[in-house]
Amino acid sequence: MTTAEPTDAGTGEGRLSETIETVDTQRVALYVVLAGLIGFYLSPLWAGLTTAFKTQTGFVETTPVTPPTPAWFTLEPWELAFAAMQGGLINSAMFVVPATILSATLGSLAAYGLTKLSWRGQVGILVIFLAGVFLPYQSVLVPLRQFWSAVDLAGLLSFAPFLANRADLLELTITHTAYGIPICTILFRSYYKTLDDEMIEAAKIDGANAFGIYKRIVLPLSLPMFAVTLIYQFTQVWNDLLFALVLVTSRSNYVVTQSLNELQGSMAQEYNIQMAGAFIAALPTIIIYVIFGRQFAKGITGAS
Amino acid sequence: MAKLTLDGVTKRFDDGGDVIVAVDDVSIEIDDGEFLVLVGPSGCGKSTTLRMIAGLETISDGRIAIDGDVVNDVPAQQREIAMVFQSYALYPHMTVRENMRFGLEESTTLDTDTMNERVEETATMLEIDDLLERKPSELSGGQQQRVALGRAIVRDPAVFLMDEPLSNLDAKLRSGMRMELQRLQHDLGVTTVYVTHDQTEAMTMGDRIAILDDGELQQVATPLECYHRPKNLFVAGFIGEPSMNFFDVSLEDDRLVGSGFEYPLSSPIRSELAGDEKLVLGIRPEDIEVLDARETAHDFPVRVDVVEPMGNENNLLAGFRTDENDSQFNVTTDGMRRIEEGTHYIARFPESAIHVFDRESGVALHSREIDDEATLLESRI
């Protein structure tokens, strides 16, 4: 375009002025706004990251966004935070993984039953599931605590000391599974409604029973939706502090969010250790997202 | 291989207090090895009937029997039937081989080698043996259709059910598949119920046709019998393309008086009509002759409004010149003859080709003459 006129093409000035003319001012404005937004959203992350690599004097004497100079650079906060949170990480992994898989699997089964099988009273059950999605955590804290006190899981498991010691985590697993089933069911349900009914009927005529159809047809086709629910549930359960605060009583069972909370010093605020801890706590959810990312994209765009 | 019996089969749907009768007291006997086509306009209950045979819908009333055994309460899984769906309904995550083997795995106890053998045999028969390791998404529509068919054939069922299996194919492929399906069904000798809304498929494929309208069975007969001896107005209008022309007429003495024409009747036909006065005169487009001069009392002056040359024939839209209502009818003439649009001709309605129906009930009172009726209308099986 800029070389349309052969006489102008020779001179550099002519070319420059033409280039400037062709620049779309709207587009420039768009990029400026986008760059501003990127800066706005990334600045806390960046500030956290730089702080985590600074020594105590480093973060006191500089602004958070300044990168650490060699004089103040240290890996110590990461080491300290990791040491303090190690137990929490393991405890969290121990209950988050089963809770996530259980709620996704049970949600998928429930959704299959609510979409591809016909039986009386489906609507009523569906309404209960829907209501479950909108139940706020805070509203169930007291009954939840009372329920688990009444059940006394540790006492029931006294025959196996290892499990009894981990009763808090088992309670968390069951609670989060129960709390996750409604949203997983709704997600799977919307996906199963798009599955071809004739395909299910074809499998039926081919001789497969309800569970066979689920196992051999529906389940393999729901992998993208499993990625969505696994990522969603994992993030949700891993980041939860409220239920853990209410249900976990023994310090040895503290989960990662609790141990992160513990990093708050009582005298001096060690922001560098807290920041490093926050990143360590967030890392597993990022890893999960990377692992299931491709399937996740498929699941939310509805492609199968 | 089996005989399929539908006896007073009825399906009622409950629609918020209203009861909708989708299939109303349908009784058909389908012989072992017979190819029966269920045909009718959309919403006539043909698919519901098929789904009841398949076990995908419950039966509200009546009974369905395979070889004499009532299967009303037998679940779809155990009915020994195979079905080809309109959407093909292939399992997208399985290869062609796995798709075809699925039914064998679920319904038989054969070992893997035997299953593979049967899958390969069927695939060879359908000329899809080179596609066995592909996924359905890598196949064309026609190939998917063959896989769907193969999945049904490989199970060697007692009854085949097909729900508009050709409607997603393009026209050329469809006419090819029509012939191939007939050949396959003939070779396999499996009792088949085939649902379609396309009267051409019904006419060309079926040993017999069952015509449904509004849930009610209108006629079960060989294709040619439905064509030449329609039991009522609906069948007469539904079978045949372009469809039969109908004229509202009233019987006055020995003449049928319609808008713009009077049609004298000979005494044998007149006597069949008894006392009914409100009648419908029917005649197929190809039975109307186009002439240049009036010769008999069954010839009428007409103007030709539209000519559609098809090559082998011309489809004309014509009207009586003496008709004040300007109603039009179809005429089919030989393709070699040139007919001018907007020109006046004489149309002959031969008395041997007319049908007369009762206007109220739609029942056929008189059907056209056929020279060698026994040979023409004989069943093909």
Topology, element by element:
The complex is a heterodimer of chains A (304) and B (381).
Chain A: H1 6-9, H2 12-22, H3 25-52, H4 56-61, H5 76-115, H6 122-133, H7 137-151, H8 153-156, H9 161-165, H10 167-192, H11 197-205, H12 210-221, H13 223-238, H14 242-247, H15 256-262, H16 271-301
Helix pairs in contact in A: 3-16, 5-10, 5-13, 5-15, 5-16, 6-10, 10-13, 13-16
Chain B: E1 4-15, E2 18-30, E3 35-39, H1 46-54, E4 61-66, E5 69-70, E6 81-84, H2 96-107, H3 112-125, H4 141-153, E7 159-163, H5 171-188, E8 191-196, H6 199-205, E9 208-213, E10 216-221, H7 223-228, H8 233-238, E11 245-252, E12 255-258, E13 261-264, H9 267-272, E14 278-283, E15 289-291, E16 299-309, E17 313-320, E18 328-334, E19 344-348, E20 355-358, E21 364-366, H10 373-377
Parallel strand pairs in B: 3-8, 3-9, 6-7, 7-8
Antiparallel strand pairs in B: 1-2, 1-4, 4-5, 9-10, 11-12, 11-14, 12-13, 14-20, 15-19, 16-17, 16-19, 17-18, 20-21
How would you characterize the overall build of this protein?
- The complex is a heterodimer of chains A (304) and B (381).
- Chain A is mainly α and 304 residues long.
- Chain A folds into 2 domains: 6-61, no CATH class; 76-301, MetI-like fold (Orthogonal Bundle).
- Chain A is built from 16 helices and no strands.
- In chain A, helix 5 (76-115) runs antiparallel to helix 15 (256-262) and helix 6 (122-133) packs across helix 10 (167-192).
- The radius of gyration of chain A is 27 Å and the shape is flat.
- With 381 residues, chain B is of the alpha+beta class.
- Chain B contains 10 helices and 21 strands.
- Chain A binds chain B through residues 196, 198-199, 201-209, 212, 216-217, 220-221, 304, and chain B through 54-56, 76-79, 81-83, 85-87, 89-93, 102-103, 106-107, 151, 155.
